[in-house]
Amino acid sequence: HCYKKLLLFIILLMSRPTVTLQPNWSVVFRGETVTLRCEIQDDGGRTQWNYEWSPANRNAPTSSEYRISSVSESDMSKPTVTLQPKWPVYRGEMVTLRCEIQDDGGTQWTYEWRPTNRDSPTSSEYRINRVSESDRGEYSCVAKRGHQLTVWSDAFTLTVRSYKPRAKLTADITIIPLGGSVTLSCSVDGSSDWKFDWVRNGQQYSDVQPRGNTEPFRVIYVSEGGVYSCRGGRGDPVFHTGTILYCNIVIICNILIKCFRNFS
Length: 264
Prior knowledge:
Elements: H1 2-14, E1 18-22, E2 34-39, E3 65-68, E4 80-84, E5 89-90, E6 95-100, E7 110-114, E8 125-128, E9 137-145, E10 148-149, E11 156-158, E12 160-161, E13 166-171, E14 175-177, E15 182-187, E16 195-200, E17 203-204, E18 209-210, E19 219-222, E20 226-234, E21 239-240, E22 242-243, E23 245-251, E24 254-261
Parallel strand pairs: 5-12, 13-22
Antiparallel strand pairs: 1-2, 2-3, 4-6, 6-8, 7-9, 9-10, 9-11, 13-15, 14-24, 15-19, 16-17, 16-20, 18-19, 20-21, 20-23, 23-24
Keywords: Disulfide bond, Membrane, Signal, Transmembrane, Transmembrane helix
Organism: Poecilia reticulata
Transmembrane segments: 238-257
């Protein structure tokens, strides 16, 4: 007898409620009255349930029915479109637009995207492998599951910079004593999240001594002669900048640094 009670208690704990819409219409119009009903397999009424509803932005009941007398857009979930990664986008980069919605972790949503002038996905992510100027514009999404439908999100404006960014190289001084070192800095105007590669005499420069806690290898020490340049990279797959400036380090009695512009 105790075993049966324990088994019944476990079954009740594992029961999962189901939310249904009354009336069972596929579309609800603003101003209509609807009732959401929380249904659970019960033990025939011997157990009294208390209910909690989400969202709780109104006087949500503790009973199994959630009645909305005059339904409006505010009673519907509203997704948000975000950009991943969250940085200024250049032509040729890969970008992902994400449709995010506050969810209870339950049934899987399907998604619809605007614009639909390409093979727009039904998932929460809208990926553009090599973004171009033609991808500029406003993007929005809506989510659906069963009879539940969100409103359309606010439009997200995707801006694409048509030029390729170039890494700028600077030296802190132009002449230093023999045996000393020079600090070279690499930067990309108006952008961030870059990791920097260094080139010496046309080959990858691996003997890099970073300075301080800066962005990965943005500032380095150099004590060898040669022609130096740098470039930035970010994303997956990696998108690289061009190079706008080279520095020629000449060792005579003193170390002479001459920087010149790349016009290619």
